[in-house]
Design a protein that fits this description.
4 helices, mainly alpha, Four Helix Bundle (Hemerythrin (Met), subunit A), globular, two-stranded antiparallel ribbon, two-stranded antiparallel sheet, single chain, 4 strands
Length: 161
Amino acid sequence: MWDSTLNLKRKMSKTELMLSLWEEGRTRLTKLLSDITPADLSRRLHPQSNSLGWLLRHIGEVEHLFAKNVFGEPIEVRASTIGPMAKDLGRFTDLDALIAYLDEAHGVLRSAFEKQNEADWETYIETKEFGRKTKAEALARITTHTAWHSGQIILILKYGA
């Protein structure tokens, strides 16, 4: 990372590196948000697929759960888009509320990242979703999850009805 006050390069800490990787991966989502309109939220690729609004809510819920389950953040998560009974009933239609929820999820997860020290990234955690992983390995899960659904959102914006 460049330190302009000293005109020197300094080595990033592992936490800074992990945060930077996650933030960059999340741009797959954040760069889309300004293109989404309230009318887009009900769009789907197929009548039985999830709507764009549902996908935005799902990304936020998973980020909250990740902060709780991987980093131990003391938060309550009411997940309505996760699990075998999760069904898109077309209720995620408030764009401002969805953006606010994603911003909150970003803040919660960013804060969790920033609390980690160097050794924490090699600590093993276990979740029912992806088993036993180091926190560093788990980073790939949240990054690819957001990127995966961002790709679906792009397709909905392009081809969805």
